[in-house]
Specification:
- The chain is built from 3 helices and no strands.
- It is mostly helical.
- The radius of gyration is 38 Å and the shape is rod-shaped.
């Protein structure tokens, strides 16, 4: 009987150790799960920030377009024959004609600048 009792004690202790190990594993799984939640939230925040940055870049790009067009129109009003305002397709002969009568120079020539 002594041997059986000792074996039962050893088995009981082993079961306690296994139970404690399972508790530790369960806690580790909880910690990993919480960490994954935090990482997921961080990814969401970064994604939202990237969306905001993308929108800001779009707005800045549109503002730069407005500035460029406004600047071209203003330069046209001041100096209609400026070579920098003429589209690349305009030849020297057409430039002379346009400068001779710049009041007929269409605004689309300014807005078509690349």
């Amino acid at each position: 009987m002594d041997v059986v009792s000792r074996c039962m004690d050893v088995v009981s202790r082993c079961m306690d150790v296994v139970s404690r190990c399972m508790d530790v594993v369960s806690r580790c799984v909880d910690v990993v799960s919480r960490c994954m939640d935090v990482v997921s939230r961080c990814v969401d925040v970064v994604s939202r920030c990237m969306d905001v940055v993308s929108r800001c870049v779009d707005v800045v790009s549109r503002c730069m377009d407005v500035v460029r067009i406004t600047s071209a129109v203003c330069r046209h009003a001041v100096s209609p024959c400026s070579a920098s305002l003429l589209p690349p397709s305009v030849t020297l002969k057409e430039t002379d004609r346009l400068c001779a009568d710049h009041s007929c120079w269409p605004l689309s020539a300014v807005l078509d600048l690349g």
